[in-house]
Batch of 2 targets.
Target 1
Amino acid sequence: MTDVNTPDLMQIFDTIEYPEAYRITYLANAIVFPAYADIKKDFGLVRAEYILLACLSHFDVLTAQEVARISRRPRNTISRAVHRMLDEGYLDRAPDPHDGRQARLRITSSGRKLHDKISGYLSRRQDEVLGNLNADERQSLTHLLKKAALHAANLDN
Amino acid sequence: MTDVNTPDLMQIFDTIEYPEAYRITYLANAIVFPAYADIKKDFGLVRAEYILLACLSHFDVLTAQEVARISRRPRNTISRAVHRMLDEGYLDRAPDPHDGRQARLRITSSGRKLHDKISGYLSRRQDEVLGNLNADERQSLTHLLKKAALHAANLDN
DNA sequence: TTTTTATTGTTCCATTTGGAACAACATGCG
DNA sequence: CGCATGTTGTTCCAAATGGAACAATAAAAA
């Protein structure tokens, strides 16, 4: 079945002045919003909170600042998320002995368990949204996205 | 110059359970947040407002509902944006003679002028973020994004 | 026709959001 | 050392956000 669509509202994909930016944000919204809504409904987590979990399930120890950099979100948003996740027992925090300003964050096993459930929501939605790409296309997209993302990570110091 | 980066916080691009979703949202953030901040600072526009302008600069006439669908944003957000842009003179609104519920929105010439300035912010930032892709890669990315975006547009009716 | 169901745009309200200022600590420079 | 500058995490506050309910209109069903 081909993609014949919504009247033709989607001609804008071709005429917009910033076509890649538009499609990338469109896809991001298409993936994240529905997954995000489900996660909020099922677990009561706000976006910054599961982002925090995701970061900490991939690095043993992080500071709040590092999480902010990885996720491109403001520090105060992360700070709030840290507090809520500490209260819920999904995180551990210990002052850094070498730097009195920062604290070392770790995920707890219950936090990791929660993350595993949540990441299912996102990867399922991801596969739905990218479902019409064949294996080659999917791989090629992944490669290009990674190259661009690494470059983007280095852009703003 | 190669992309050697932020300590190695970016290993997460490889280990995350939903790699494409993560990179797509990461790139979306990398493009949109800085551009968005500048647009807000320079023109006082909120995101929903320039999205509205962008939609109306690509379609002669739209209803608020159609804008919401194109942009994947809630109706009330668009409704508010419509009011502010009407007040500023960037939009015209006329009741639809065939359907008393909806109103036909059009961009004014001053709105179009504003959009032209704004779209520069976004396309510049887009080119910065995608700056390390060569012409072939860029074209390939564009093609894949478009295919996926069209599919996504048909997913949730 | 009348009744039910769906759609559009809006308002209400609680929550989320992010900029700005802040205190605590660290680092660089005289 | 003493002073300026930078960084981390936090709080404050105003603004943006989105779900839910609503009135008005339209379409579908009975």
Note: Residues 63-65, 75-76, 78-80, 82-83, 99-103 of chain B lie near DNA strand C (CB under 10 Å from a C1').
Target 2
Amino acid sequence: MRWENLDQEPCSLARTLAVVGDRWTLLVLRDCFLGVRRFDAFEKRLGVTRHVLADRLKKLVEHGVLAKVAYQDRPLREEYRLTEKGIELHPAILALVSWGDRHMADERGAPIVHIHKTCGHPMRPVTVCSECGEPVGARDVQVEVGAGWGEQGVLPQRQKLTGGGDNG
Amino acid sequence: MRWENLDQEPCSLARTLAVVGDRWTLLVLRDCFLGVRRFDAFEKRLGVTRHVLADRLKKLVEHGVLAKVAYQDRPLREEYRLTEKGIELHPAILALVSWGDRHMADERGAPIVHIHKTCGHPMRPVTVCSECGEPVGARDVQVEVGAGWGEQGVLPQRQKLTGGGDNG
DNA sequence: CTTGACAAGTTCCAAAAAGAAACTGACTAT
DNA sequence: ATAGTCAGTTTCTTTTTGGAACTTGTCAAG
């Protein structure tokens, strides 16, 4: 399968990865959440080549994750800002960061700390169920075919996840 | 910056992406959560080339996200199972899937539905603060340098995110 | 008027990675 | 003997990336 066809897959993860499933794209978005907006700033902070950066920014704009906004005329200069669609990637990025904090940090601990403004404390993200509000782990969810599935494939026979628990 | 140095960055997202920040790796993990364990099964379901699949599985094993477990001798056959470290990627994958359901689905809706076994309802993941339990959005968090930051860089001047709200 | 700086790219080439498809090795079934 | 299964490896071609220089429009200094 090729990258270009990934957004046709009957899988929301594949479709999401068609937009952000690239080594640089998520780092660009991380910087967007930190307030970076300009081409040069992305380049200096990320160490990505201008070539690739231009391509990734263009794709993010095409997918409506970023918007190009002029901040001066003569010469025309444009910066990149998160759209609402882009801002909604925050939970996903937060979850990836949290995993890295837990499993990839060195002995000094997490490189950056997230302060929850509402309560004022350093926080970790916790994933809960939208219906009952209880925390959700991998073993607490069961997957079923939904309306958008189509006819293309079939779910694999469910196996138990490693480490105990019951997955049907 | 090269892919190989990414896990040295003082950023948990970069370090996480050094492990899973690849177009195929997250799709492999998605299938792991669906119960897929064998080389052939991954290949058939993903449409990835055997070459790349072998490479990604090897890297996931090296990083301790998957474990290789023999399921028969003569001939030796091994399958890949999520470790606890791998299982903890579930919130991140769920968040990416949820974004895709919301922003990349066609008119028929989400391809697959997640049922929360504890309460029995179809669910979306909601990210809440570990300290106060309130939902957390991008505009509710403030980023500060933590103990693991080192001396390598500096946080950018914080800008307001697009679409209202106040980010200090 | 010429030079230099700034910002946001584009162009060019060599190197690395990915795609496609055949090949290997240790078996089992017919 | 022949074919099939499974988990890869090898070979070859195409695509993508990394690195670095070049372009365009404008302002400021000398």
Note: Residues 90-103 of chain A form the longest helix (14 residues).
